[in-house]
Amino acid sequence: MRGLKVPRKRKNRGRSKGRKGRQKFVQCSACGKLVPADKAKRITRWISPIEPSLARELKKKGTYLPKVRRTEYYCISCAVFRGIVGPRSRAKRKERK
Ligand SMILES: [Zn+2]
Hints:
binds zinc ion; two-stranded antiparallel sheet; first zn-finger domain of poly(adp-ribose) polymerase-1; 20% helix
């Protein structure tokens, strides 16, 4: 691929590994598919281990609620399905966050 003038949709081929070789695989949290870590979408959420209804009551009383950080990985198809990522126009794809 390298060196050839192949028309491609994304400069990084949808991955962030550059010239690095094989990447570690992670499991998609939704479908269980194994995806390369640099290709998967990583989502970190702070989740309270307490039930939402109970948490609301406790919050009213001003209790400190512990939160747990949960990191999830999604394969591209699941990320698109869940609205985490989506198709972007040619110009927007070049935008950097
Ligand atoms: Zn998936």
